[in-house]
Amino acid sequence: MESRTVDIEQLAWSWSNEPGLEELIVTRTHSSGESIEIPVARIQGARPGPQMTVMSGMHAGEYSGILAAQKLISEVKSEELVGTLLVIPVISTRAFMERNMQLNPVDQKEVHFIRPGSPEGTYSDMLIDTLFEIVKDSDYLIDSHAGEMAQSLMSWVPVPMRGANELSSQSLELARGFDVEYVEPRYDLESIPPFCVALLNAGIANIWVECGKNGVPTEQDTATHFDGYIAALQTMKMLPGDSARPRQKLLKGKRSQINSEISGIWHPAIKEGDVVEAGQYLGRLTDYFGNTLEEFNSPNRAIVLYYWSNPAINAERRPHGYDWHNGLVSLLDLEE
Prior knowledge:
The protein is of the alpha/beta class.
């Protein structure tokens, strides 16, 4: 199938009303002259029903969800589908083709933490506003993430728990089919990315899935994303069949992060998914010769959500104040 290119202003009347698969490249031009491109596949079911969006590549170096989204486009058949399925395999073709990691290559912003509604802002502001315009009519949304080259990450599903009880319940239902050990309901507004909050405010039940590490899209991690998508579609009665219900545990606690205030070479002493005790040694930072500059310990009993597996720690590089380059360990304090 040959994809078509349409401007965001043309999107609403670009789709066919007939069942089947369509593929568009949605574009928008920033005031700087830089172009935005977002590939969108739309599968219209044979019967009317809700709309679900599956998207990946919010961070362009998180590949397992991207491959799973591609598979979803080819596997879901319109004659079996009730309602509409939107699939966005890559949120920014620019970032993806530059093999970029966490930060947008144009303006060095972290797009997951941008609230839509400011298209007149920077390139990333317009990118997120464009993304929201594409998905705003959805009833449900799954946002796939993974660990990039610098991240060794355990698999888990955070679930934003804000707004109406029905919305929170639907979000939890979306998460139940993913074969991960932990699901993390988040009630604290500060712990929920602004894009997810905007979705909830628009009445869209949503989750984000963290599965994969170090930028390597293994078959198992890709399958976890894909099988979870299918289970979510079955849960919402958009596909036939009984949805998967793997055993999961609920994670409760407050997020914390260990950062270094100086640059150096990081030697971690923990792994993703480890439960560490208060005061436990997490690793050390050295100079180029291996001399210890600082040692780090856990402030509380916590689980290691991920750690920076890349040894290069640059405390001076903090674009827009973001601390991605001096992060060492991401923790979730465990409630007793």
